[in-house]
Write the structure tokens for this entry.
Amino acid sequence: MWIMVSRTPPGPRSELLYSITSGNQVAHQQPAADSDSDPLRTSTRLRLTRLRGEADNTNSTRESPTQNLPVKPPSLYLDLEGIRLGRHGSISIISLYVIPTAKIYLIDIYTLGGAAFSATNSNSVSLKTVLESPAIPKVIFDVRNDSDALFSHFQISVDCIKDLQLMELASRMGNRAYVHGLAKCIEEDSPVSTIVKTEWQRTKDSASRLYNPEKGGRYEVFNERPMRPEIKEYCARDVALLPGLYGVYAAKLQKEGAFWRVLVRDATTDRIKLSQSTSYNGQSGDKRCGPWDEWNIQEAMEAWNEEVWWNIRTNDFVLNEDDDWVSPTSKEG
């Protein structure tokens, strides 16, 4: 089941990524007036319509809105929800925000299971293809448990990930000992208005009473079908605020230079490798700790400066726009 929450933007209407089985439903948001730059323009009044013409083909798809999308800045933003998300739990919903089409897709992994990842469009592109592609950037806040769950349950090894949590840490001035959570990042750094932040907090509080055991809820609410409006809105609102955070942190890192951008890229790769290891514990308190301390930052900076100095001196390699060292003749490639 793909549930689509639409902002009804100008221009052509985008298609669903996939339709898989008979009776799948898509929720189209009713057109709404602009509301203080809210990236979701959310409405709890959703009109359900059945997909037609693809009822009996489990591999049937429509053209994917993830095709031919810009990669600079990234077009795809992801968030996963589930029960004890990771190898010892399960994935319930993947929220996918496709920026150029201004659509948020809530992908029902609980119902579809592996079919959500293996179904292909007319060009043989699947969700697994997109998630594993080294050429399609995907923005996620803290990739570790998401990567753990995707790898453990569906053998998906994510690639080309932009980890917002690490981007915030690298662009931060001062102490980098501990990472921030998404809520703190939204409260302190999101460029949306106070009104939008208040609405996001209201949605979060309403949903947490349903899923948080400490507030009388239960995580299994993410697996209830049909989805409760509060959960649907919660899933959509979180991912809707990620592009704004990406813009803020990417701009700061652009000013800082290639060193910190490469450090973030390497640390993201390390997070993915760690999440796929047998020793990974997604509930460990150590997850609060950042990957860098003053000593290894200094060590990495010295190594970086030596590399830069050597390549300037020898002209063997230059940095391309992706912060990769390449030969001068291939810089334009």
Q: What stands out?
A: The beta strands are 2-6, 25-29, 46-50, 76-83, 90-98, 103-108, 138-140, 161-163, 318-319, 325-326. Confidence is low (pLDDT under 50) at residues 3-35, 42-62.
